[in-house]
Amino acid sequence: MAYYITKLIITAFLIVFISEIGKRYSLAGALLAAVPLVSILAMTWMYIDTNDSSSAVEFSNRIIWLIAPSMILFIAFPILIKNGIGFYPSMFISVSMTILAYYGVIFTLEKFGIKI
Fold it and tell me: Rounded mean pLDDT of 50-61?
């Protein structure tokens, strides 16, 4: 149980830390957020949990296919905000578009026999 609490604390700390840095120094916050910290943490926790790097490798290989559709969020969100749509609706629309893009990529890859 202490291990899971430690994982939660470390992960939550990083998210709060990045958001606080981003409020004061947007470029520094963006750089920290752009580093795939969540993926790094997830792969690290997987390895610690299993002592086997193969699950982290498989996880990493699947992430590669999902990088491009995740860009939809970062493209759509500022465009929506700049066009006068509020923060929460813009976030909802951007996240929805990103989810649809993920499904589109997964569906397309499966048509070519690539299973992720």
Answer: 92
Task: Answer whether residue 32 is part of any domain.
Answer: no
DSSP run (H or E) holding 4: helix 2-24
Q: pLDDT tens for residues 18-52?
A: 999 999 999 998 888 888 888 898 999 999 999 99
* C-beta of residue 59 within 8 angstroms of C-beta of residue 43: yes
Q: Is residue 112 part of a domain?
A: yes
d(CA 4, CA 6): 5
Q: What is the 3-state secondary structure (H, E, C) of 9-70?
A: HHHHHHHHHHHHHHHHCHHHHHHHHHCCHHHHHHHHHHHHHHCCCHHHHHHHHHHHHHHHHH
Residues contacting 19, CB < 8 A, separation 6+:
29
pLDDT in tens, 88-113: 999 999 999 999 999 999 999 999 99
Query: What is the span of the domain harbouring residue 68?
Result: 54-116
